[in-house]
Write a structure and sequence with these properties.
Elements: E1 2-7, H1 14-25, E2 29-31, H2 32-42, H3 45-56, H4 62-73, E3 81-85, H5 91-103, E4 110-115, H6 118-132, H7 139-162, E5 166-170, H8 175-188
Parallel strand pairs: 1-3, 1-4, 2-3, 4-5
Helix pairs in contact: 1-8, 2-3, 4-5, 6-7
Bound molecules: adenosine monophosphate.
Adenosine monophosphate binds at residues 10, 32-33, 36, 53-54, 57-60, 65, 86-87, 89, 93, 136, 145.
Length: 197
């Protein structure tokens, strides 16, 4: 049973590392950004609600986001643990996640903080914009999302730091190096990788 959260600025590689770590620990990776983008692509009611917000780089309202996450974590595959990517993203969402997990007698085991300098994040995001054409990877979208990260998301790390569960990981290096650093930090906490991985 491993319950993880990965936090980092846009362009830190948290999505890629999140999937790798989830695989190593045999748990599902739950990315709110992916859920919202899939809903937009599908044109579902949720997608119609969030499309303009995502394109501007603003945050989807907390209540809607928390409801989406609760639904996802209630699915059977998340009963044995999960890795959250992109949620919580502000302190109000931390409180909401705390409530939900306390109701299940659960808590996060570790928070992975991917540390990447601002210039490096911007360079990686611009490259992704050129390669993938994500609709929020415009210059304004990128600047807005990084500002929101610094203002709203970075403070959640202070909350989790007081609980002693944050592992700060140097996010500059090859994909394999960074995955190795994260796994070493989690193992040092006594969290075991799944036998299958
Ligand atoms: P991401 O892929 O994590 O960068 O998320 C892409 C976009 O989805 C964000 O810029 C927000 O518009 C929205 N989003 C993702 N996670 C959240 C969240 N926890 N709270 C509010 N909005 C979110």
């Amino acid at each position: 049973m491993t319950r993880l959260l990965i936090v980092g600025p846009q362009g830190s590689g948290k999505g890629t590392q999140g999937v790798r770590i989830a695989e190593a620990f045999g748990i599902p990776a739950v990315s709110t950004g992916d859920v919202f983008r899939a809903a937009v692509t599908a044109g579902s009611p949720l997608g119609q609600q969030v499309k303009a917000i995502i394109e501007s780089g603003d945050l989807v309202p907390d209540e809607l986001t928390s409801a989406v996450v609760r639904d996802r974590l209630a699915q059977a595959d998340a009963a044995g643990g999960f890795l959250l990517d992109g949620y919580p993203r502000n302190v109000a969402q931390v409180a909401s996640l705390d409530d939900f997990l306390e109701g299940r007698d659960e808590a996060l085991d570790a928070v992975i903080e991917l540390d990447v300098p601002r210039e490096e994040s911007i360079a990686r995001l611009s490259q992704r914009a050129a390669e993938q054409g994500r609709s929020d990877d415009t210059e304004e979208g990128i600047a807005n999302r990084l500002a929101i990260y610094e203002r709203e998301t970075a403070p959640i790390l202070e909350v989790y730091r007081t609980r002693g569960i944050v592992d700060r990981i140097d996010g500059v290096g090859s994909l394999d190096e960074i995955t190795g650093r994260i796994i070493a930090a989690l193992e040092a906490r006594g969290l075991a990788r799944s036998a299958a991985a």
